[in-house]
């Protein structure tokens, strides 16, 4: 019977609206209503998705719907939350109850001190003020700067609501309490230094002034590794590939081992550059009979029925000098006949499309030279790749595995394409000769499900709800 909770509140509120619209005698603004004293005895959080859809609370967050219970509420003209004039629908006001949504623009720390954490109800002839802690919306994560850091490397988590981060828990229960930095003004990031002794993979959880933030379960996660240049996965080697012997020691000197140059130094030295309009050879996995190329091995990490919207391709990248040309193309199979941004192999409409292009120097449609002095992690959702952009098809991870295993050449590949990029119709960015270092490491498949940590852990078995 628990499923009935999903329908209870909407039905009640619709009935309330219907009864109000049928009432010909509007007594809301008459003296009796406007002069009657008000009292609020309890505040409830209304959340039909919760196991307790009408829950008594002593705090609420921006954007949440609350119910005030008391006496004399019929006739309320104004509601001020932290001093903010908050809209409410009087169709949902009775003498003993009213509903109001806390506007996302309600100030938290910026309001006057005497107005903070207070709700003020106003009629013509009476007022009522109650205490209720008002918090920002639950913190959310948008990205992590480095999801496979070495001990001693800095990790920055980006998102919203990260003010006053004080405790970070890494996979395996490793706690970080020292050296934490956070953006306490806007709450857009927090950072820490990777400690020794983290061997498990999973989520980062961080406690801050607005609650608990939780990343997808991709931090320090290696079980979906495709190639790491140091023993995991196997390189293919034929006429259209570079020799794995061209992998180089980490130019940043972090001790992470070997990494893949987008174009090997020997090739650049022999030709001077990769000329505009050209693509290089590729870096591919071994293919059909190599056991690690069957991604069914990853089902322990990513169950077979996981939607593609909850899976991503990740890799680490280092680009010491500004990059202003070319794209990195990734393909789940060695079946390409066209190369570069906007080709059929990257299209959602082509039945054999299993590729995606990463254009790091294009940010929100604007040309921005790309450079990073440290290793950073790039995350590409599977739903950005070829046919998996058609999310309406309902693809799951098993489909990705089956498509690869059924392919004539199941090699996963990466190569640098130095061609013009028509980023939008009629807006073409011309390629220039490429002659610089661009390095990639730790190509992997990872979980990509977003989480919001519940204020009420009993709502979810894992204390979280999906975004």
Strand content: 25-35%
* Overall pLDDT confidence: 91
Question: Class by helix and strand content?
Answer: mainly beta
Distance between the termini: 25 Å
- Quick one: biggest sheet? 6 strands, antiparallel
The percentage helix is under 10%
User: Which value, in Å, is the CA radius of gyration?
Assistant: 28 Å
CA-based shape: elongated
Per DSSP, the total helix count is 4
Low-confidence regions = 1-24, 460-465
Q: Could you tell me the number of beta strands? A: 34
Please explain how this structure is put together.
With 467 residues, this protein is mainly beta. It is built from four helices and 34 strands. Strands 19, 20, 21, 23, 28 and 32 form a six-stranded antiparallel beta sheet that branches. Strand 30 (421-424) and strand 31 form a beta hairpin. The longest helix is centred in the N-terminal third of the chain and has 17 residues, at 5-21. The protein starts with a helix and ends with a strand. Residues 1-24 and 460-465 have low confidence and may be disordered.
Put the structure in a nutshell:
The chain is mainly β and 467 residues long.
Topology:
Layout: H1 5-21, H2 31-35, E1 39-46, E2 54-56, E3 59-61, E4 65-71, E5 78-81, E6 84-85, E7 97-101, E8 118-122, E9 127-131, E10 133-135, E11 140-144, E12 154-160, E13 167-170, E14 174-176, E15 181-182, E16 189-193, E17 205-208, E18 211-214, E19 225-227, E20 248-249, E21 258-261, H3 265-271, E22 278-284, E23 311-323, E24 327-331, E25 355-358, E26 362-363, E27 366-367, E28 370-381, H4 397-406, E29 413-418, E30 421-424, E31 427-429, E32 439-447, E33 451-453, E34 464-466
């Amino acid at each position: 019977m628990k499923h009935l909770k999903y329908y209870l509140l909407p039905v009640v509120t619709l009935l309330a609206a219907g009864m109000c619209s049928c009432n010909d005698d509007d007594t809301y603004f008459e003296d009796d209503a406007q002069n009657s004293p008000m009292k609020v005895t309890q505040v409830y959080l209304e959340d039909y998705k919760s196991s307790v859809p009408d829950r008594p609370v002593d705090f609420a967050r921006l954007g949440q719907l609350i119910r005030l219970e008391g006496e004399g509420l019929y006739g309320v003209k104004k509601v001020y939350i932290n001093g903010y004039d908050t809209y409410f629908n009087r169709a949902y006001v009775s003498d003993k109850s009213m509903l109001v949504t806390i506007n996302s623009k309600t100030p938290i720390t910026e309001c006057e001190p005497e107005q903070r954490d207070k709700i003020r109800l106003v009629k013509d002839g009476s007022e009522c003020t109650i205490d209720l802690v008002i918090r920002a919306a639950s913190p959310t994560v948008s990205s992590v700067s480095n999801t496979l850091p070495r001990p001693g490397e800095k990790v920055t988590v980006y998102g919203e609501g990260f003010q006053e981060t004080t405790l970070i828990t890494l996979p395996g229960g490793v706690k970080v309490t020292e050296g934490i930095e956070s953006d306490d003004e806007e709450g857009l990031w927090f950072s820490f230094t990777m400690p020794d002794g983290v061997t498990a993979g999973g989520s980062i959880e961080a406690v801050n002034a607005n609650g608990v933030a939780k990343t997808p379960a991709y931090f320090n996660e290696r079980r979906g590794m495709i190639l790491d240049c140091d023993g995991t996965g196997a390189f293919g080697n034929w006429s259209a590939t570079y020799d794995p012997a061209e992998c180089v020691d980490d130019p940043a000197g972090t001790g992470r081992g070997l990494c893949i140059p987008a174009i090997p130094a020997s090739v650049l030295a022999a030709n001077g550059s990769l000329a505009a309009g050209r693509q290089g050879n590729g870096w591919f996995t071994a293919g059909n009979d190599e056991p690690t190329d069957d991604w069914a091995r990853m089902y322990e990490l990513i169950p077979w029925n996981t939607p593609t919207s909850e899976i991503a391709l990740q890799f680490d990248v280092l680009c010491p000098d500004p990059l202003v040309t070319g794209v990195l193309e990734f393909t789940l199979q060695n079946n390409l006949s066209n190369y570069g941004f906007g080709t059929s192999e990257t299209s959602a409409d082509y039945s054999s499309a299993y590729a995606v292009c990463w254009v790091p120097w294009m940010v929100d449609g604007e040309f921005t030279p790309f450079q990073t002095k440290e290793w950073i992690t790039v995350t590409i959702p599977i739903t950005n790749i070829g046919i998996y952009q058609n999310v309406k098809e309902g693809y799951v991870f098993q489909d990705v595995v089956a498509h690869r295993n059924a392919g004539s050449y199941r090699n996963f590949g990466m190569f640098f394409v130095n061609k013009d990029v028509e980023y939008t119709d009629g807006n073409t960015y011309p390629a220039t000769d490429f002659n610089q270092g661009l390095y990639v490491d730790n190509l992997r498949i990872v979980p990509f499900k977003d989480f919001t940590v519940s204020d009420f852990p009993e709502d979810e078995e894992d204390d979280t709800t999906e975004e």
